[in-house]
Amino acid sequence: MWPRLWRPGDLIRSGDVNGPPIVSITCDDGPWPVNTQAMMNHMRNAGLEQHYGLIHFFMVANNALMFPDIAREVFERGYGIGNHSLTHATYNPTRLANEISPAQDVFASLFNWTPELFRSPGLTQGVVIQNECARLGMANVFTSTILNDFLAPRISSSQIINNVARTIHPGNIILLHEGGSHTQTVNALPGIIDVIHSRGYEIVRLEELLSAGTIQLMADVYIGIRSDVAIADAAELGGVDEFTDVVVELRTYLELSSNLSPERRAMVEARIAEALQARRA
């Protein structure tokens, strides 16, 4: 329905930050009893489930197998579905890469259809993940903001709404969680919708956002080319290992934390340098 500006293997941070005032809502870790259906019902009550649903659910394939009726309801109500790995049991890039294709097999069995969009659990980066996405014709979709609704103990619904209000921008891919114990996030959704609309933004389907103007890639922040920062690391260091994992994890943290103090940023950059030096040794 929408032109595809991204290329297989891209690691996407957001839509066009200089473009129209549009945002997309995404949810991770479902499908889940009560929560997933409640999120869809909030959207329906807000008039955002007319021709199709305006949330993209990044599903854990094993959860979809555990709750197939809920997964099929998401599909039948026209919501977007993305691949969020088979188990969500690892943040190891190689193991995650190996879970993408089996998860696709699960979605094919449930829907006779497979997603084009993936999201790494924990926003894990790695050249092996991006290579597997490229092989399967997929992109890896991250976010440009961290809302902290995943923290334990859970933050309140009002805090989640305030975090959305504080970080919203054109092209924002809003990352929420509904799988598991995320009642606060579910309860925050009506307020999130109100904040988005009060700021003059329109909620659009993720595929539409990714077709509007240009796409900001994660790598653009550091090296200004269309490739994952881990590709550069792997080429320099001769492979992906635990030190490379530390580097890309810390760089992801820097990329997504625009309000860090200079002291905190310097400390994280020093840890990156230490990890690189340890790998070379």
Principal-axis shape: globular
Poorly predicted sequence stretches spanning 5 or more consecutive residues? 221-241
The biggest beta sheet reads: 5 strands, parallel
CATH architecture of the largest domain: Alpha-Beta Barrel
Q: What string gives the helices and strands in order?
A: EEHEHHEHEHEHEHEHEHHH
| The CATH fourth-level homologous superfamily of the largest domain | Glycoside hydrolase/deacetylase
Strand share of the residues?
Answer: 5-15%
State the end-to-end distance.
51 Å
Please report the total strand number as a whole number. 9
Q: Write the CATH fold name of the largest domain.
A: TIM Barrel
The class by helix and strand makeup works out as alpha/beta
| Rounded Rg | 18 Å
**Structurally, how many domains make up the residues?**
2
Specify the CATH class of the largest domain: Alpha Beta
Mean pLDDT: 86
Keywords: Hydrolase, Metal-binding
Domain NodB homology: 21-204
Pfam families: Polysacc_deac_1
GO biological process, one term: carbohydrate metabolic process
Using brief descriptors, characterize the structure shown.
12% strand, TIM Barrel, alpha/beta, Polysacc_deacetylase_ArnD, 281 residues, NODB_dom, 4-stranded mixed beta sheet, 2 domains, 5-stranded parallel beta sheet
Description:
This protein is α/β, with parallel strands linked by helices and 281 residues long. It has 2 domains: 11-209, TIM Barrel; 224-280, no CATH class. It contains 11 helices and 9 strands. The strands form 2 sheets. Strands 2, 3, 4, 7 and 8 form a 5-stranded parallel beta sheet that branches. Helix 4 packs parallel to helix 5 (127-136) and helix 9 runs antiparallel to helix 10. The relative contact order is 0.19. Residues 21-204 form the NodB homology domain. InterPro entries: Glyco_hydro/deAcase_b/a-brl, NODB_dom, Polysacc_deacetylase_ArnD. Keywords: Hydrolase, Metal-binding. Pfam families: Polysacc_deac_1.
